Amino acid sequence: MPLPLKTRYAILSLVVSVGLIGIKFYAWAITRSQVVLTDALESIINVVASGFALYSIYLASLPKDENHPYGHGKIEYLSVGFEGGLILMAGGYIFYAALQSLLHPQAIARPDWGIALLAATALVNLVVGFLLVRAGRQHHSPALVGDGQHLYLDAVSTFVSCLALGMVILTDNVLYDSLAALLLGVFIVVNGYRMVRRSVSGLMDEADVTTVQQVVAELQEHRLPAWIDVHNLRVQRYGASLHIDCHVTMPYYLSLEQTHEQVHGIEEVVTQEFGVPVEMFVHADPCTFAACSHCHVAACPVRQHPFTREITWTLANVAKNERHALGLSE
């Protein structure tokens, strides 16, 4: 049985990271450059993070079970946070080591060889990082996107290292080496914080505004007269899967079978929009006469007020836990 595509990309990332770390430490061995050591130390994080990303993608692919009724997709956000935490620690150490090197500079040997080796690793990281980010976005995998962005970060760090070694060659001043390492330490810490922030957002179910807007737009475009009102809409992402729930006001005189058909129609409208597994729960609320003014149902047998206007569903009003224009909290 062939491995899933996400797993194959994660394995590619791990293999590439292991290979490049050997090249970078060889470059440091022949140059004794602080900025090259900085780059090599960050690559250790790549290996650990790629391994954890691979394991998290495997866990995320497991089906739902009794202990995990929403599946295992959240592990991918944990993977991003773990990777970000490692980057933060590495950045802190790199910053400290760069300060020490700045205070006690050392001569650099064969910087031209260092540039050649590092430039080759940077190009590989850029290509693999691009592939991982593209695959992660196509398959809605936070772990792959985070791993690819980390490789982008590593490539940027490597190019800065090459620039620093170039300045050492041109000026014969080793302080450029230490200054570049210092800047990389700051850059790495900032990006590590951003990854941790993104991980926490996913684990805390921070609203995915883009996805919610897509759901609202689909409901608005395909709305039926019996869907009088939509409110308390919530969207949660579990790895590649989506869990959506909302309240829909419908005519109170519909039979249970008719209400079920309307709910099924809502679920079909939403699930067809997304190319990922969608689990949707719709809570049907009975209408009240106060809803007549914005109800589209023609020839309603119990209408008490004429239709006056349609309430357009937007991100701002569907998320509220109250029926539109009624002010009735539930």
TrEMBL record:
One of its GO terms (biological process) is intracellular zinc ion homeostasis. One of its GO terms (molecular function) is zinc efflux antiporter activity. It is a multi-pass membrane protein. It comes from Hymenobacter amundsenii. This is Cation diffusion facilitator family transporter. It comes from the Bacteria. Its main location: membrane. NCBIfam families: CDF (TIGR01297). Residues 11-204 form the Cation efflux protein transmembrane domain. The chain crosses the membrane at residues 9-31, 43-63, 75-98, 113-132, 152-170, 176-196. Belongs to the cation diffusion facilitator (CDF) transporter (TC 2.A.4) family. Residues 211-287 form the Cation efflux protein cytoplasmic domain. Keywords: Membrane, Transmembrane, Transmembrane helix, Transport.
